[in-house]
Amino acid sequence: MVRDPISFKRIVLFARKHHAHRTVLSCMKKLVNHFNTLNIPILLEVTSSLHYKLNTPVVEQHELDKSTDILVVVGGDGSLLSAASLASEVGIRIIGINRGYLGFLTDMTPKTMLAELEDVLKGQFQEEQRHLLRVRLFDDKTMLMESRALNDLVLGRGESPYLVKFSVLIDNQFVSHYRADGLILSTPTGSTAYNLSAGGPILHPQLQAFAIVPMFSHSLNARPLVISNDSSVQIKISTENLAPLAIYLDGHQAHLAQSGQYLLVDKHPQLLHLLHPNNYLYYDTLRIKLGWGSKE
Amino acid sequence: MVRDPISFKRIVLFARKHHAHRTVLSCMKKLVNHFNTLNIPILLEVTSSLHYKLNTPVVEQHELDKSTDILVVVGGDGSLLSAASLASEVGIRIIGINRGYLGFLTDMTPKTMLAELEDVLKGQFQEEQRHLLRVRLFDDKTMLMESRALNDLVLGRGESPYLVKFSVLIDNQFVSHYRADGLILSTPTGSTAYNLSAGGPILHPQLQAFAIVPMFSHSLNARPLVISNDSSVQIKISTENLAPLAIYLDGHQAHLAQSGQYLLVDKHPQLLHLLHPNNYLYYDTLRIKLGWGSKE
Amino acid sequence: MVRDPISFKRIVLFARKHHAHRTVLSCMKKLVNHFNTLNIPILLEVTSSLHYKLNTPVVEQHELDKSTDILVVVGGDGSLLSAASLASEVGIRIIGINRGYLGFLTDMTPKTMLAELEDVLKGQFQEEQRHLLRVRLFDDKTMLMESRALNDLVLGRGESPYLVKFSVLIDNQFVSHYRADGLILSTPTGSTAYNLSAGGPILHPQLQAFAIVPMFSHSLNARPLVISNDSSVQIKISTENLAPLAIYLDGHQAHLAQSGQYLLVDKHPQLLHLLHPNNYLYYDTLRIKLGWGSKE
Amino acid sequence: MVRDPISFKRIVLFARKHHAHRTVLSCMKKLVNHFNTLNIPILLEVTSSLHYKLNTPVVEQHELDKSTDILVVVGGDGSLLSAASLASEVGIRIIGINRGYLGFLTDMTPKTMLAELEDVLKGQFQEEQRHLLRVRLFDDKTMLMESRALNDLVLGRGESPYLVKFSVLIDNQFVSHYRADGLILSTPTGSTAYNLSAGGPILHPQLQAFAIVPMFSHSLNARPLVISNDSSVQIKISTENLAPLAIYLDGHQAHLAQSGQYLLVDKHPQLLHLLHPNNYLYYDTLRIKLGWGSKE
């Protein structure tokens, strides 16, 4: 669709910190050269730490302008996950360039990125709001941690060889007690990641939902549960656990959860404004990425 | 919650046609006696065909008054499924009495029904809207069937011993081609029924969603998919099928689908207004019915 | 391995009855021409019904000589399944040519078949014994059906829209009662077919085992069970079923099973002597067919 | 069955080291008193470390006589797992008393143990051989670890938040490369433990087999595989792993596996001689433990 001309005035590049991948660097150089030639300001987000190789001005988080800047992530879905925190905090629009293989979040390839990005700058794009999880850890009433995740919260065994024990409440209603390897709480965005390997369902990105999936539950009748993302999920770490549990956000260990502590998870108030080229079709990405049948 | 006094003026009983179960009949007699004594009109919905045993006036569909009548189903979840079509067409509120075992839809037991139903008549109840599927079958552009289902649409092999072939489109976007035993398209209400046996996720009743689950897909990477119930699902029966496929709605065979025909499934415009006693808790029902752990 | 010269004296071709596939016919013509030129007798198994197109002498079952004939199936795994009954009855060695796509049972492709088959005739092959199921249906003590299957027995709903009910006993020990869509009882050979779609495990072909997999069991804790193929499995059709169940052997409907009847399934005394080219590797076939990862 | 009188001359009690459970201690005291009265020697295996509370002579491993001693484990399946190493090394017969709840390995309850154990001493028992895994870890050609497990080997992430990478070879044939949370290699005895939570099949205890189950594989078409226990399984830890993987044997962390190392797993030459009371029925235990349906 062609929109009211959104006057993107600056491109801000983002790559994963210390990202050594050659394709990423050569992509970024190509982008810098191209948009320098077009006299469109192109800068590097400061944490990406590649400025010494790119010869580009850097920009810090507080200097970003959500109405006229676009954050262009280079490097695949993992890199976009890393940028999601910053992008949702600032409210800046984000789009992704992969390393040659289609991503769930990064639609543009190095081959087609220049023309596609020019179209995007002209206002020719699809925009969707993706929800993040807000994850808070409490000890009694003291908040010990507050963070966010675009894909998922995984509560895992940590270093314990034993099953872990926890209870789940949704909107203050007791759901169940579990003995399991852990629990995955996933957004629609994360539903095609770890959640899918664990037997969870695919959630359409625009479904206002979370998926809750117990991991290798001792009880054979545990099943994935999908709830509204207006709900608040409380996970109480049983006092019977002998060792702390590990909390992973988007695959990175964020904290330990001790016996007796509890997690509160809900929809983060700050959204991710994810852009796609105009020819983006969700179900095409899904079918291609999962190897689903395309013909009779 | 106590509401604005909803002035239920009449109780309309419903039982499955020719339902021979003794508990059902004795329940209904108890209800008739009790509310006759209280001078609250109690009638029998005409298709229930038990009036010769109940000595109660019967009422036909067009005589129902959705603002002052309440439809009381006796007999378990299967009976409530049978009444859902009538209730959603008329727009009448519905509540269920089981045969002694907690149901997902029928919360009241024969033991507690009299007091609980009196409370409901006084306006002390929980009310929720449950969506039904609207299922239409087309041959080219001619509509061959239009029907509704509270739980699910199952597209199955019919009498064919072979895998069936079909394609799924959502909102006119091609999703995938399947070779499988069939497909289950379920509402949240149906998510704890056949969908669950087939590996589909549990959807909270208030989630605005459908689950789509291929049955025993030949392709090992087929997975359950959950989409918004604002979406429209098209299922195209491949012309390569040698025999017609069977369409089941809420477990009853509704029609045959020939090669080349297609189904259109979306949210039915008419809702089911399902009531529960005030002490109803969804997750308690879920945990009890599925045998989930209640203590550490 | 090079064996004691097995003096295969005749090639007997087999194709599925009325098999119209072009590749199959052209393959068979190529085989006939090639081995006619080499003066190696090549005949057509009579039920294949293609002699009018092949100009080849036909041979009937009783004329087959298991010590000097080799049965060459053309057409893929389904065709080899069709030939398995005959081959195991006669005790003749069997080998398969596919239609260009690797099969689990048919290893040779049209491109390489001539050289590979010459090697096989010279005694350069791998030979393995595959067990078949012996399936018998009883009414009280009267045997109503006796048949065999190389892949699987499927007990299914037949035309009933309802769950079916049956009990399983193994070696006369009661295992469980089931309410389900049906049951799959699979050999190792069949474990990569329907069993796999239904969540059953892959059994190595030389494992002396059967897999028993309930289909969409109402009970969520039903699980696949693998037992010794020295065991005898009894499946009792509950008298509560309202309609007959359908018995499928290797995907073909073989019989109806009425309420109160029972099936006895064990290892058939007659084996299938399946040959492979010398370069055959089971795990390569498995990995390629299932799309498993071949590199880091 | 009544056997040739096996002249068990001594009972050797075993409990998990430092096992504080009250039922266990009271059970053991009851056993000691009972068999003291009968003048049947009853001793305590030395590592059980409860002699100060039991007033019973202790016996060390080298003093055990496999032909006339019986090892009686008190405390449930976990305790029997702990005793399996000792019992299989010595070759002594083993039997288990649970803490009131039926176990897969511990059939006798505190209530019935005295009479049942007397019968066993008289030679009235069922005996079965259970295979253990032999697990060896190699660095190039140096063996770093050799151990055994009755239930399972689990190769897990260790402390790494990332998927781990490894390849599996069976009998020196390459099977597949995996990116996953890990791998479970289970005996029939272990098939109802962690393997079952992870989607693996139940293997009958007398099936000569192992189950190999990838955990949360990134690839959606990974499936459980069952092979003969005459096979040798090699698991190569990919050099791409950034952190060591953890090796768990019967749920206890045994070692770390570094990138480039490999595991060799096969059937241990020493068996476990497991006894059951004469009325033991495997499928009854299975049905009761898993909550399978017992009636129509």
Distinctive features:
296 residues, homotetramer, 2 domains, Rossmann fold, seven-stranded mixed sheet, Tumour Suppressor Smad4, 6 helices, alpha+beta, six-stranded antiparallel sheet
Describe the structure in brief.
4 copies of one chain form a homotetramer. In chain A, 19% of the residues lie in helices and 37% in strands. With 296 residues, chain A is an alpha+beta fold.
Written description of the protein model:
4 copies of one chain form a homotetramer. By secondary structure, chain A is of the alpha+beta class. Chain A has 2 domains: 10-130 and 271-290, Probable inorganic polyphosphate/atp-NAD kinase, domain 1 (Rossmann fold); 133-267, Probable inorganic polyphosphate/atp-NAD kinase, domain 2 (Tumour Suppressor Smad4, Sandwich). In chain A, 19% of the residues lie in helices and 37% in strands. Chain A is built from 6 helices and 20 strands. Chain A has helices at residues 22-37, 51-54, 77-90, 113-121, 194-197, 282-290; strands at residues 10-14, 42-45, 58-59, 69-74, 93-97, 125-130, 133-139, 142-149, 152-156, 164-170, 173-180, 182-186, 202-203, 209-215, 225-228, 233-237, 245-249, 252-257, 262-267, 272-277. In chain A, the strands form 3 sheets. The first copy, chain A, has a 7-stranded mixed beta sheet with strand order 3-2-1-4-5-20-6. The first copy, chain A, is globular and about 65 Å long. The two termini of chain A are 31 Å apart. The mean pLDDT of chain A is 94. At the A-B interface, strand 10, strand 11, strand 13, strand 15 and helix 6 of A face strand 10, strand 11, strand 13, strand 15 and helix 6 of B. Strand 15 of chain A pairs parallel with strand 13 of chain B.
